[in-house]
């Protein structure tokens, strides 16, 4: 999907001399064939122009995103921008044609102490494009690194260097055949990290759109990188020399194949680029897994874990993958893995297509849920008694797991013990021989004749019928509510917050999200306010993984808010989202602090 930005256009522009317009047009031409002026006078006497800040801009309310590229309104040409913001000669007849880089900044609103940096930046651009000879031992990687380093160090240079690159791309008549392609490649790389200020932005986008026919692939890449940086803020870390070398060598295909691990240790290889964020990785993964419901994409997350003492971390969807990888290199962490897991269980029950395209997704879900079955976290045992129906269900899943493991024959009594959930084994009335017989009966009846994939698919179908399926559990040491036995288990699901008995998983108390006023984390504790907004009730819990609990609850609230807001928008664009059960407008994510 492509985007462009529409800006309000002024009703009129000041009249200027045709000679000045001609001069400024020359300023935009490539230095391989344009005129350069050595003068200090500017347009300040002729065209009033307020100063503007140059910085890495963020999206504003004036930026309107549309799903398709189209032509911007009339005006906003780079010549128009140059008239207002470039240094120009006082006398067009005093111009002299030279073949050297610029000696002063193009923009007249920047700092006064950057002349040398500006000159060196322009030389770096020309060298990268092949329009200027490299110094001894210098490479295009060095040129690129110089530009990014100084743009990051001095944000006032962002617009200046953007304009310099555009200057070299305009009417480029370089003797080097690939000069233009190298220039667009350079701009695409830079846009991974920085975008123009709001002052330059509409002219910049107009320039890209005007050139998309001649250089469609590279200009479209520039637009894509621009949109990504505008949305996510750009890369946070300077690229390593290795990364820049990769970018410079491979251009628009610059990237790497990154391995992610699915539950069960199954590798999933995704093609990533320096502009890829974690949300992109998840979308690519879901597509490769042939998920039929795109609404489920937001229910997955990526963790980075290490076999050393480094703690595991849940990655934010807006983080840049290459920033994360560079941090691993800087911290000398080599034993890390990127793990994809399903975190939210909102769109359940799951549906599967029993075909070759679904096998990887079935394996994914199977290997994530099997450990949860054996831990017994989702098995609720009422009054310390296992009903016949529950016993039959658990025996069926044990038989399915045995078949999915490609075991031959019938499991022994000792093997059956390892096929049952931990909570069942703790039960006082467990009868090993009865369990073994029941598992054998399930194998005989239908399971033994299944293929491995059929057994996994049936396992996933059965486990979804568990009363606590889709609940994530957090051990709580204490709860300051006399009606809730401590210690207990806190469960987070799409329906709200559950307080469960540690051994039986019976529900002691529950708080639906409609009643949640706020959830706050205080070190290893959480404070939950619920009920009336004016007179809320309060529960404090001691939880080791308090941060993870609050983050997960926040994601559910955010997911619910987006779903409801989307439904409301379909009814009317003017409606605002209201938290369910509340009479005041309340963004659900704001309840998580």
TrEMBL record:
Provide this UniProt record's keywords sorted from A to Z.
Actin-binding, Cytoplasm, Repeat
Point to the regions of Polar residues compositional bias.
574-593
MyTH4 domain ranges (all copies)? 97-248
Q: Which Pfam families match?
A: IRS (PF02174), MyTH4 (PF00784)
Q: Determine if Repeat is one of this entry's keywords.
A: yes
Specify the signal sequence span: none
Q: Where in the cell is it found?
A: Cytoplasm
State where it is primarily located: cytoplasm
Q: Where is the FERM domain?
A: 255-564
Q: Would you say which domain of life the source belongs to?
A: Eukaryota
Q: Could you state a single Gene Ontology molecular function term?
A: actin binding
Cellular component terms per the entry's GO annotation: cytoskeleton
Q: Where is this region: Disordered?
A: 571-593
Family of this protein: Belongs to the TRAFAC class myosin-kinesin ATPase superfamily. Myosin family.
Q: Which PANTHER family match?
A: MYOSIN VII, XV, SH3 DOMAIN-CONTAINING PROTEIN
Q: What is this protein's record name? A: MyTH4 domain-containing protein
């Amino acid at each position: 999907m492509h985007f462009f930005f529409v800006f309000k256009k002024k009703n009129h522009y000041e009249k200027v001399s045709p000679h000045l317009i001609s001069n400024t047009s020359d300023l935009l031409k490539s230095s391989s064939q344009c005129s350069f002026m050595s003068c200090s006078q500017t347009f300040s006497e002729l065209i009033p122009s307020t100063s503007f800040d140059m910085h890495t801009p963020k999206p504003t309310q004036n930026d309107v995103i549309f799903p398709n590229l189209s032509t911007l309104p009339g005006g906003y040409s780079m010549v128009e921008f140059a008239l207002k913001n470039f240094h120009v000669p006082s006398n067009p007849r005093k111009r002299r044609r030279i073949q050297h880089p610029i000696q002063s900044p193009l923009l007249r609103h920047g700092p006064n102490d950057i002349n040398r940096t500006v000159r060196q930046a322009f030389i770096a651009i020309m060298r990268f494009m092949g329009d200027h000879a490299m110094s001894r031992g210098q490479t295009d990687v060095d040129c690129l690194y110089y530009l990014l380093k100084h743009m990051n160090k001095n944000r006032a240079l962002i617009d200046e260097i953007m304009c310099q690159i555009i200057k070299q791309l305009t009417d480029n008549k370089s003797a080097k055949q690939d000069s233009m392609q190298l220039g667009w490649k350079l701009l695409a790389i830079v846009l991974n990290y920085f975008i123009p200020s709001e002052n330059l932005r509409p002219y910049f986008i107009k320039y890209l759109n005007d050139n998309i026919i001649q250089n469609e692939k590279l200009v479209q890449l520039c637009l894509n990188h621009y949109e990504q940086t505008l949305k996510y803020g750009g890369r946070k870390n300077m690229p390593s020399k290795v990364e820049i070398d990769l970018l410079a060598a491979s251009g628009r295909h610059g990237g790497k194949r990154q391995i992610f691990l699915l539950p069960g240790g199954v590798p999933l290889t995704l093609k990533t680029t320096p502009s890829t964020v974690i949300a992109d990785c998840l979308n690519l993964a879901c597509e490769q897994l042939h998920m039929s419901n795109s609404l489920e994409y937001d229910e997955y997350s990526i963790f980075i874990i290490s076999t050393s003492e480094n703690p595991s971390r849940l990655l934010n969807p807006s983080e840049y993958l290459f920033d994360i990888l560079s941090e691993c290199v800087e911290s000398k962490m080599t034993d890390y893995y990127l793990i994809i897991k399903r975190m939210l269980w909102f769109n359940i029950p799951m549906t599967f297509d029993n075909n070759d395209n679904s096998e990887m997704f079935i394996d994914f879900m199977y290997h994530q849920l099997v450990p949860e079955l054996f831990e017994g976290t989702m098995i609720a045992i009422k009054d310390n008694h296992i009903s016949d129906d529950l016993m039959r269900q658990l025996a069926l899943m044990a038989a399915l797991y045995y078949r999915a493991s490609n075991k031959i024959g019938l499991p022994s009594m000792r093997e059956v013990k390892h096929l049952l959930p931990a909570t069942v084994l703790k039960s006082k009335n467990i009868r090993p021989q009865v369990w073994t017989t029941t598992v054998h009966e399930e194998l005989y009846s239908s399971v033994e004749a299944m293929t491995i994939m059929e057994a996994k698919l049936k396992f996933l179908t059965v486990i979804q019928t568990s009363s606590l399926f889709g609940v994530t559990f957090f051990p709580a040491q204490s709860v300051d509510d006399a009606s809730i036995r401590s210690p207990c288990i806190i469960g987070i699901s799409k329906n709200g917050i559950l307080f469960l008995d540690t051994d039986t998983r019976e529900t002691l108390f529950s708080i639906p999200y409609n009643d949640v006023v706020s959830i706050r984390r205080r070190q290893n504790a959480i404070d939950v306010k619920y009920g009336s907004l004016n007179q809320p009730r309060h529960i404090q819990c001691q939880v080791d993984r308090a941060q993870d609990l609050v983050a997960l609850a926040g994601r559910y609230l955010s997911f619910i808010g987006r779903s409801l807001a989307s439904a409301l928008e379909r009814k009317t664009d003017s409606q605002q989202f209201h938290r369910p059960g509340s009479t005041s407008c309340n963004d659900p994510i704001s309840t998580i602090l």
